[in-house]
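B., you asked whether I could sanity-check this one before it goes into the benchmark set. Here's the sequence:
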Amino acid sequence: MSVPTEVARLAHRIGEAVALPHERMKAMIEAALSDAISSPVWLPMERRRASHENYARHLLYGDPQDRFSILSIVWDHGQSSPVHGHYCWCAVGIYSGVLTETQYREASGATVMTGTRHRGAGTISFEPAQEGIHRLANESGALAISLHAYGVAPDRISTGVNQLF
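And here's what the prediction gave me:
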């Protein structure tokens, strides 16, 4: 399957951004992701498929130089991630639907909730490696789809992204 034009454009822009100093990289990745989610009609149907057992992760692009990966994650009603932080930088854009993000902090070896916010279509976030702990959940009655860019090679998505709490 060929890479859709929008994914190729997003990957190109993230590829340019990862060579920059952190603050410029962050701003460029956020801008690229914002542009990508501004039109929620281009994501191929096979990358919008949900799983009834757990949220579904679909690899959209793996950087040939192993600097980053781009995924679509499809959240059915009631599905959520575990409480986690990231080993690598992570950028998230809500492509469609609404996700609830709950933030936590570590305290005496446990996680303590510090806040919750609803993130609707068009919202963007960026988190540097080893900063922040959160959980994403679809508490709405409809599917939600998010695009995630991670600063990790595609073959390390399962082991190099999330630090579970």
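One thing to flag: The chain has a mean pLDDT of 94. Otherwise nothing jumped out at me.
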